[in-house]
Design a protein that fits this description.
alpha+beta; Nucleoside Triphosphate Pyrophosphohydrolase; four-stranded mixed β-sheet; three-stranded antiparallel β-sheet; 3 helices; 22% helix; globular
């Protein structure tokens, strides 16, 4: 079965804007936020909740995720195209974020990730191998600080 070319990117951060990054097992040195493919029948927010749980062990209750209601299209790296149907070269990635009060314990999915770290926004963005992930962290940091008091939306 082929992987869907629709995915979520979930940027996890603390109230102090420390961002969680995960290092890929198959590509040491490739750091990223939580990502994952949409599965048929799921709402995108359900995909985001599932991926956070699978990749970090953090249970996300309904209403905890911020849906940024935006997506980015990027070219799938050639080394990963065999996971997709023939001829699929681009993926549409939907942005979510999760604000946590502090750094919780992380339970990595050993088949996917080998390490994790919490970094300030600029360092986290610079460490990401993916341009869309770098842009997402910068956006979340830039737009979250003035609009939130801790993790609560200020109207």
């Amino acid at each position: 079965m082929y992987k869907s070319p629709i995915s979520v990117l979930v940027v996890l951060h603390t109230r102090n804007l420390d961002f969680l990054l995960l290092e890929r097992v198959a590509h040491p040195g490739y750091w990223q936020s939580v990502t994952g493919a949409w599965e048929a029948g799921e709402r995108l927010v359900e995909t985001a909740r599932r991926e956070v749980w699978e990749e970090t062990g953090i249970a996300v209750e309904p209403g905890m995720l911020r849906d940024w209601r935006q997506s980015r299209v990027y070219e799938i790296f050639p080394e990963w195209r065999n996971r997709y149907a023939p001829g699929v070269t681009h993926n549409t990635e939907h942005l979510f974020s999760l604000c946590l009060p502090s750094r919780p314990p992380i339970r990595l999915a050993p088949a996917e990730h080998r390490n994790h770290q919490w970094l300030p926004a600029a360092e986290a963005a610079a460490r990401c191998f993916s341009q869309t992930n770098r842009e997402a962290i910068a956006q979340v940091a830039r737009e979250t600080l003035p609009r939130y008091d801790g993790c609560r939306l200020v109207s």
